[in-house]
Amino acid sequence: MQLKKADGTASIYDNLEELFRAKRSVRNELFGSYLTEADEDGNVKPSVVLTKVDEKMKSYGLYLSNLKTLRGEVSRLVADEEAQRLQGTVNEMSNEQAEALMNQLKLKLGYGE
Questions:
Q1: What's the rounded Cα separation, in Å, for the pair 79 and 8?
Q2: Distance (Å, whole) CA 19 – CA 6
């Protein structure tokens, strides 16, 4: 199996046991956190790994959904801050500067001549 790392490189493992012989730090980089360990003989129970993977996928799905919701809210706040900053800039303009800005906006939006 070929697994990608955050830096874009890939690691190839022939089987589950080979993967779990890799250092925990390597597995954490591949999967985001701890899954399970091989026993003292180097064996890994696929059913245990499957259960852990299912748990992580459910959690990560929830995290991703929450992060998307948070991003939407923060994006709105940033847009509001930017709008307020721009409003302050426009308020400080002279009439001539404001008129020049309006003319440029009309041209940009296709309302100009």
A1: 32
A2: 17
User: Which residue in this structure is represented by tokens 């790994």?
Assistant: 49
The domain limits of the chain are 1-44, 45-113
DSSP tag of 6:
T
* pTM tops 0.90: no
pLDDT digits (tens, 9 = 90+) for 14-66: 998 899 888 889 998 899 888 888 778 878 889 989 999 999 999 999 999 99
What's the CA gap between 8 and 54, in Å, rounded? 24
Q: How many residues does the chain have?
A: 113
Where b means 16+ CB within 10 Å and e means fewer, 45-58 reads eeeeeeeeeeebee
